[in-house]
Amino acid sequence: MHRLHIISTGLIILLVSTFAQAQSRGRNLIERASNTRQIKASKDQLERDKKELAKFKKDIAVLETAYTTKEFGKVATLRKNLVEDMKREIAQSKVKKEQAEREIAQSKSEMRSNNREIRHDRRDFSRGNNTADDRNDLVRDHVNRVDDRRDKRDDKNDLEDIIKRHNNQKKILDAFQATSNIETKAAATESISYLQQFSKTLVKDLEATERELREDKGEQREDRRETRDDFRERRERR
Length: 238
Description:
It contains 4 helices and no strands. The chain has helices at 2-68, 72-127, 131-178, 185-237.
């Protein structure tokens, strides 16, 4: 009877361990697929940001020339188009804010999954079986936890920057639209100044997209390493 109890306990431990490993593999596959999508989205966004920034700067130069040559009909048309461009950029900032919020939620989910894996590996280590392998598992878990914490911190910083940029863009747009007397030199100077300020937010936005792409590629490398670790762990347990 005692022997049967030992066998049953061992079987339960094996099943729990196998289930935990399967969960870990599944989590890593999901994370890899998610990062692949994010990398593609960041690359597409980067190309879009570059084109929009170049066009915005060009339109500012054309507007400045129109002010100088006193082509006020052209000025009015250009101002109207630039307002629409700024509204589009502000709407895109809102979408990026929502995306950053989703990435924070994903980072939290990854941290919870990693914490469950750490608890599982600690139980394995405390049982005294495969001590060397279990010690390696704990080391890998610690590395993953550090990575997850860094990812979460980066995501929170990204969100804060996006919110600040979004609010600043709205203030600049309001100020630009308030310069209604377009036929004065003062209004022209003020309008160009606001547009140049807005252009700087687009540069910051582009830099943020480049940084996001680097972070996504870093997370992809982490996921590949975790997948290799899972494969190595399965091989060690055979």
